Amino acid sequence: MAGQGRSMVVLTGSGISAESGLATFRGSGGLWEGHRVEDVATPQAWIRAPEIVHRFYNERRRQLMAANVVPNPAHEALARLQSTWQGRFTLVTQNVDDLHERAGSHGVLHMHGELLKVRCTSCGEVIPWQRDHGPESVCESCGRKGDLRPHIVWFGEMPLYMEAIEGALLDADLFVAIGTSGQVYPAAGFVELARRGGAHTVELNLEPSEVAFAFDETFYGPATETVPAFVDRLLGS
Ligand code: APR
User: Fold this and answer.
1) Helix intervals (H) in 128-189
2) Which residues of the chain have pLDDT under 70?
3) How far apart are CA 233 and CA 228, in angstroms?
4) Which residues face 228 on adjacent strands?
5) Cβ atoms within 10 Å of 172's Cβ, excluding its own
6) Of 181, 215, 224, best ligand 1 pocket probe by most atoms within 8 Å of the beta carbon
7) Which amino acids are annotated catalytic?
């Protein structure tokens, strides 16, 4: 396996935040069990019924900001890895929470957007946002009312930072996917891209993902156990 000084990409999904108290998307109790994707997470939903979309993301932001939601040992292990790793290190997340940052990671590529930001559909400004938003919300940049949307990549929209991510994947010696079901593209295809660039590939998940067959190594168990153990092994401690 690639050691210190090599180029590494880590991809995380909602499984890494599950033990911090945030629901994953699929499976029993998942976010998509209680909501129809097409009602809350598409550009069409935003045009048809923006109040439902506002409510959904306001609820999720409140959950994220609850006092009991804090980074867990898996987030912390990745922050420790980043601060110790001597080669290129790229952390890509599909998660819209800020638990990686709270654990101390920096430069995180939030390919599906961020819950603690809104975007003005009028002037394009992306604004840090920690309270509820709604049709009455005013853009701090252009002053227009009602044009602020969650800074979230919805189904049918292009994920963010794709050029940087693809470049890092093709350059990677090591690619690690953590807590993601491998059901949503383009992220589910990253393992193939990394392999094409010659990377050693590792999956850490609770159970085999849909694309588990594509990885060189797999480790199954809760992220709070598998990720710190993997990082320790990688750093040789
Ligand atoms: N530790 C490790 N893995 C876990 C844990 C845990 N404690 N709990 C759950 N998992 C795994 C599940 O086994 C599953 O494979 O995390 C994965 C979560 O899968 P999904 O719910 O599909 O979430 P994710 O892969 O992040 O979804 C991708 O889909 O709806 C969109 O935009 C949304 O970013 C999201 C994308």
Assistant:
1) 162-171
2) 1-2, 237
3) 9
4) none
5) 27
6) 181
7) 112
- Are β-strands 113-120 and 89-93 bridged in parallel, bridged antiparallel, or unpaired? unpaired
CB of 209 within 6 A of ligand 1: the answer is yes
Task: List, for residues 23-37, the tens digit of each pLDDT value.
Answer: 998 877 888 788 888
Enumerate residues 6+ apart whose C-beta is below 8 A from 187: 11, 13, 92, 94, 111, 159, 180
* pLDDT for res 237: 62
Question: Is the whole model's pTM more than 0.90, yes or no?
Answer: yes
What are the pLDDT digits (tens) for 104-150? Answer: 999 999 999 999 999 999 999 999 999 999 999 999 999 999 999 99
Amino acid at 130: Q
At position 177, the amino acid (one-letter code) is A
Output b/e per residue, 78-88; b: 16+ Cβ within 10 A: bbbbbeebeee
Q: The tokens of 84 are what?
A: 């110790």
Please name the amino acid found at residue 55. Answer: R
